[in-house]
Amino acid sequence: MIDRYFSAPKTLRRLRSGLSGTYIDGFADALTRDGYGHATVVRYLRAAAHVGVFLERRHKTLADLDAETVRAFRRHLRRCHCPASNGGRHGHHAPFGVQRFQTYLIGHGLCPRSIVGETRPPVPALISEFTDWYHTHRGVAQPTVHQYARGATAMLGALGADVRSWTPQAVRLFLMDAVTGGRAEATQKLITATRAFLHYLAFRGEARADLVLAVPAVAHWRLASLPQHLSVDELTRLLAACDGDRPARVRDRAMVLLLARLGLRANDVAQLRVSDLDWKEGTIQVTGKGRYQVRLPLPQAVGEAVLRYLAVRAYVPKTDRVFLTTIAPITSLRSGDAVSSVVARAFQRAGLHVARPGAHVLRHTAATEMLRQGVSLDHIGLVLRHRSLDMSAYYAKVDLAVLRHVAQPWPGRRS
C-alpha cells in the first residue's frame, strides 16, 4: 500500500524494515480509509517509521509504546539527529503521526491501551446505573446523559456515598453553594440533573422521596422572549454561503436545508441514517427526544441537496449515518454540537450576526415561516414534535399581521 505514496526502492525498503515495517502497509491502508490527504499520509508514515527506530535504539518493542514512551519520543524530536528519520521529525506532523500509529497498534492489540492523556477517575457504580437507566428507559440522549452524570457526581461527592442519610437541608445547601455566582444556564443544568438524580434514587427506594422538594426552582418566565429567526433574505444569504462543489459545502447546504425547512433539531441531523430516508415515498423518519419518532414529507429541494451530498461524501463502511466529518479521520458526527458548529461557521461566512448562531435559529425560522404560510399551530407542533401546544404558541408572537387584528387600542387620547 505504501507504493501509492513512495516510489524510491531505497525508501520503500527503509519503511518496511525495523520494528514498524511489519505494520507500515496496514497503517497506510487505515490512513487512506480515514480520508487523510496524500501529503499527510506521507508524513505520518515517516513518523511511524521514525518511532520504530527510536524504540529499537532503546532496546524496546512496539509493546512498550505507552503514554510515557510517546512523551519521551516528543522530547527526542527537539534534538533528533537520527540518520534514518528522513522527514519523520520535522514540524508538528510527527507527534500527530505517532499518536495515530499508536491508536492503530492499540486496535490490533500490539501495544497498551493507555493513549496519551490523563486517565479519568472511575465512575461510581451508582452514577453508572443512574445514567444507564435514563438512557435505556427514558431515551435520554448521550449529551444529556453526560450532563446528568456531572451533576449527580458533584452531588455524590459533596453529600457522601450514603444516600439514605441525605436530608432536604443538605441538598438545598449543596445547590445554593454550587450555583452561587454561576451562570443562569449552568445553574439550570445542575438543578435539572440534581432533580433527575433524586427522582431516580426515590424510584429505587434508596433515598427519601421528599428530597426532590428541596430542589429550588429557577425563576423563568415561559414564552417571555421572542423566538430568534431569520428573514427570507437572510436565509438566502446563509444558503449562498454554502454554495460550491466541495464536499464540505455540499454537506453544509444539505444540513441547513433540513434544519430550516423541516425544523429538525441539531441532534436529529447528527443521528440521521441513510435508512431513515424513504426515496420512493418522499419521506424522512426523525427520531427525537425520548426516542419519539415521526415521519415527515421530504421537500424536493431538501431531498436533492441530501442526494447530492451522498454522491460526493467519503465512504465509511462502519457507519450508515448520513452526515460525516470532512476532516480526517472521516467518521460520523458525534453529537448535535457538531451540527451547530457547522451552522455557526456558515453564519460567519454569510456575514450574519445573531445572538446565538446555531442550529436552533433555523428551527425557529422553519416554525415562523410555516406560521406565515398559514399553517395552524397544532400542525406546527406536530412537525416540530412539541409535547405542548404552548410551545407552538411561542411562535404566534412573530406573526405581526395577525397580531394587528387582535391588538387592543392603547387607552387614552391620541396626540
Concise account of the structure shown:
Helices cover about 55% and strands about 5% of the residues.
Question: How would you describe the overall organization of this protein?
Answer:
This protein folds into 3 domains: 2-107, no CATH class; 125-214, DNA polymerase, domain 1; 232-403, Intergrase catalytic core (hpI Integrase, Chain A, Orthogonal Bundle). It is globular, with a radius of gyration of 27 Å. It has helices spanning 9-15, 18-21, 24-33, 38-57, 67-77, 93-107, 125-137, 142-159, 168-179, 184-203, 232-240, 247-262, 266-270, 300-312, 336-350, 359-372, 377-384, 389-393, 400-406; strands at residues 277-278, 283-287, 293-297. It is built from 19 helices and 3 strands. The chain has a 3-stranded antiparallel β-sheet, with no helix packed on it. With 415 residues, the protein is an all-alpha fold.
Classification by helices and strands:
mainly alpha
Please tell me what the overall shape is.
globular
Mean pLDDT: 83
* Helicity, as a percent range: 40-55%
